[in-house]
């Protein structure tokens, strides 16, 4: 098969690796001039760890671990009151045993897949137009002027995919707003910074966190849940505005947040990776249409609230490659695409069911709500520390609700 993948994030290169092992000709296009080193922490959990192990990349993932010691909730003076340390082979922390920066994860997958002679990466390239998508082929016009035909086009170009917008009717895509906004950026590390994920809850539904990375810097994250209609409108408009407008909004609404807010705001305009987004899910009624299929955030962005975006991208790529490997001579690609949808959708829908109290419970608007949450978390930290309450199953062995399908043909090709 001759396959085009749009997007060189996590999902695209993972799929390229498995398709390359299966003997397909794969072209991956990416709109950026090169791989972007940016991105915050991502988790790899459950069956996704097994897939990474199949790819022979688990040691590399460990090597690029953020070295985060665990998660701790802190008071306005920076004093921890509810620590949840990471302990090897045990659950009980909001920090994963396989914590890695998104940019590092994407780079590992890119390096692993590009070595195959049947994989080609084209940077600074996009799909200008999907010329046709019918029973025989999918034809695209690329931004470099070339018009090419493929057996399959995989849209892995992110939550707001331009490929999806071209090929799927708007009524097939549902955007679920979680009433939360996030700003991320990287700041210089100070000697006083530590290797914990420090979570500080300001009042008026604001949260500030700091996390270590393996590159000698610190990752800042500000989250906000608007408290009234005017604030909601301002932040919603901000998510569609330019960087300067977004920075001004952050400074205005976080200036009095306390803790290290001012330090982080002062460093914001110098950050090379400032990113601002509204937290919204993508839900599609069907992931494929003819010879175009959506993968990863393009098909089912679950939001950072689930901690499962990267794992879904990896698992989805494995399932899609596995279903394609089952095709017999003469069978239409739609059979594999339907199999991918049928096999993976129940798990995706389960992951996307965020409890109604979340993320509101983590963003207290008033002092008494914050106090109540802090008392609960402090008690929970003490309970989880008890040896007889701590799970000792590895992150890979923990049941994430998905049974990894076995694809004999693909497995045989992987082992060669």
Automatic annotation (TrEMBL):
**Domain FAD-binding: where?**
2-352
Where would one find coiled-coil regions in this protein? none
MF terms in GO: FAD binding; oxidoreductase activity
One Pfam entry for this protein is: FAD_binding_3
Q: Which UniProt keywords apply?
A: FAD, Flavoprotein, Oxidoreductase
In Swiss-Prot or TrEMBL terms, this protein is called FAD/NAD(P)-binding domain-containing protein
């Amino acid at each position: 098969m001759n396959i085009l993948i749009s997007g060189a994030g996590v999902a695209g290169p993972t799929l390229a690796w498995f398709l390359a092992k299966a003997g397909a000709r794969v072209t991956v296009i990416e709109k950026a001039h090169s791989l972007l080193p940016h991105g915050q922490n991502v988790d790899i959990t459950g069956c996704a760890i097994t897939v990474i192990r199949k790819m022979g990349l688990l040691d590399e993932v460990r090597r690029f671990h953020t070295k985060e010691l665990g998660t701790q909730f802190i008071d306005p003076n920076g004093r921890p009151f509810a620590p949840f340390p990471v302990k090897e082979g045990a659950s009980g922390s909001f920090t994963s045993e396989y914590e890695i920066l998104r940019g590092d994860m994407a780079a590992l997958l890119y390096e692993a897949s590009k070595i195959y002679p049947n994989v080609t990466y084209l940077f600074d390239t996009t799909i200008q137009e999907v010329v046709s998508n019918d029973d025989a082929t999918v034809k695209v016009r690329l931004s470099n002027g070339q018009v090419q035909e493929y057996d399959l086009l995989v849209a892995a170009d992110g939550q707001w995919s331009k490929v999806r917008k071209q090929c799927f009717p708007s009524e097939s895509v549902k955007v679920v707003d979680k009433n939360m906004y996030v700003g991320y950026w990287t700041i210089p590390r100070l000697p006083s910074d530590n290797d914990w994920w420090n979570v500080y809850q300001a009042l008026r539904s604001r949260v500030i966190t700091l996390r270590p990375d393996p590159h000698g810097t610190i990752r800042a994250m500000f989250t906000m849940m608007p408290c009234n209609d005017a604030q909601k409108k301002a932040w919603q408009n901000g998510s569609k505005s330019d960087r300067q407008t977004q920075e001004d909004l952050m400074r205005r609404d976080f200036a009095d947040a306390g803790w290290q807010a001012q330090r982080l705001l002062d460093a914001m305009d110098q950050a090379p990776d400032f990113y601002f987004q509204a937290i919204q899910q993508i839900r599609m009624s069907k992931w494929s249409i003819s010879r175009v299929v959506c993968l990863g955030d393009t098909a089912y962005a679950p939001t950072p609230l689930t901690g499962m975006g990267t794992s879904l991208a990896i698992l989805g790529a494995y399932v899609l490659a596995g279903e394609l490997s089952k095709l017999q001579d003469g069978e239409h690609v739609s059979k594999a695409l339907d199999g991918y949808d049928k096999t993976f959708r129940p798990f995706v829908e389960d992951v996307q069911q965020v409890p109604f109290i979340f993320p509101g419970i983590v963003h207290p608007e008033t002092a008494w709500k914050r106090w109540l949450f802090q008392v609960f978390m402090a008690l929970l930290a003490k309970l989880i520390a008890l040896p007889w309450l701590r799970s000792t199953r590895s992150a890979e062995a923990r049941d994430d609700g998905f049974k990894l399908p076995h694809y004999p043909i693909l497995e045989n090709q992987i082992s060669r």
